[in-house]
Amino acid sequence: MRKVAALALTVLSVLLLTAPQAAALDKVTGSGSTYVGPAMSDWQNGANSRGIPINYATRGSPTGVNQYGDRTVDFAGTEAEITSLIAAGGGGQSAEQRGYQYVPDVAGAVAVMYDVTDAGGNQVDYLHLTREVIGRIFSRDITRWNDPAISATNGGKALPDQPITLLGRTAQSGTTALFYDFVAHSAPGPYKAFVQRNEGTGIGPLPDGVRPIQLPYSGPDADFYKLFGDSEQIAQAVGLHRVPFSIGYDEFSYALKYHAPTVWVENEAHQYTQPFAENIAAALTKAELRPDLSQKLDGVYTNPDPKTYPISAYSYLMMPCTTGRDTCRGGYDAQGKTDTMTGFLEHIACDGQVNMARIGYSPLPPNLSQEMMNSNARLTGQPAKQLNAGNCRNPTFHGGLGAGAASPPDPFEKIGGVKKLTNPTGGPGKSAGPSTSAGTATATASPEDELANGGSKDWRDAAPAAYDHDGGGPGIGGWATLVLLGAIIAPLLARGLLRRFRRS
């Protein structure tokens, strides 16, 4: 029996030595967007706990894109497109030369945060503003808190006669570009005057359609801004009341983290909403995604769905793509980095979306989670994994948006006993209607737009990617080979062992 055991161990050792070993995962680094920072922190922690080595630094979209182009990081996070960065003087040329693909990773929204007290010194926590008024404030067309346009949507109550201090970012920022795209559409006249007035002071001159990625650091409007190094600092300044009578913009997750009051923004249906997941999801049903998956948001700003939060947008990862958007393949020189990145993307697409509503985002719709798998296929040249409710925990695959998706009721009835808001552009302000689950159209949405949390159907089908491999044919995987050999060898081995046993 000892001889049999020894022989069995010998055979097992040979099989183990000849079996293919799992490739080691290489550390992958990323840099860029602060907009996606809290989501990325959640994803990074989840991935690292599973042995997927990821490290991401929030340095701003332009910095991340340029570091990606210079190959000092493996991927970038961004809301600013390459073409816009180049046109606005934010760099991007090296990233264009390296080659890239856009990969949507989460739906989010820019919150308008403020720190204001009323005439009695009480903290204001109910501020309602129209899109036009927000655009005028951030274009320096409205400069004082007692402006009639602000009073009109807040029960007619005038706020104190205090100058408005604008909060923003010191450096180039994708969030700045995203927010000022909204400003340009909401108050085009004041915005154009703002850009012309501040050309050469960090802004422009800008070609038509290109938004500023940096706020003025000198010139006629610079003294009315207080600029901070990152999103975290802006939210802290508001939440901790460090800059009285101020208003700024930041991804909603930061407002939640620091308990910063957030403006109720009027949408196209003349309803006032805040950037909770259900309102982001409603808004992004009108996002247009181009063939390269970059976003056009004009339809989001004017989405007629009454639940829309109009300053909503996707965030993107930027990853290698060496032969063009529609046919791109390959990317990382080291197989270990490819394996790490594909594992990370699958984590983001499914488990990574579970907490998004709770921390101030909205999870990706199923079609865009599948696009993450298609992006993996472009990296590896293998067919894309097909996601479904059975293999993906993303809440949108299960008919919802996750915990924390619902918006609180509109507090306008608490405003000094006022029962109805005055609305100069339409009907009375109201709270948003009943919650809408993912994948369900609202009462005003047309059937062809019934796509959970965004992505119009005006984009390419999420077809699995498959490529021809050198050598003609898919080949047989290492473990499949081992099983096949085992099926052949096992009977022979068993017969030999039986003969030895009989002899002994």
How does this model look, in words?
This protein has 16 helices and 13 strands. It has 504 residues and is α/β, with parallel strands linked by helices. Helix 2 (37-49) links the parallel strand 1 (28-32) and strand 2 (54-58). The radius of gyration is 27 Å and the shape is globular. 50% of the residues are buried. Residues 7-21 and 416-494 have low confidence and may be disordered.
Spans with pLDDT under 50 lasting ≥5 residues? Answer: 7-21, 416-494
Backbone shape = globular
Total DSSP E strands: 13
Q: Strand arrangement, largest sheet?
A: 2-1-3-13-4-8-6-7
Q: What structural class do you assign from the helix and strand content?
A: alpha/beta
Helix content: 25-40%
Strand content: 5-15%
Distance between the termini: 8 Å
Tally of DSSP helical segments: 16
Average predicted confidence as pLDDT: 81
Radius of gyration: 27 Å
Major β-sheet, in short? Answer: 8 strands, mixed
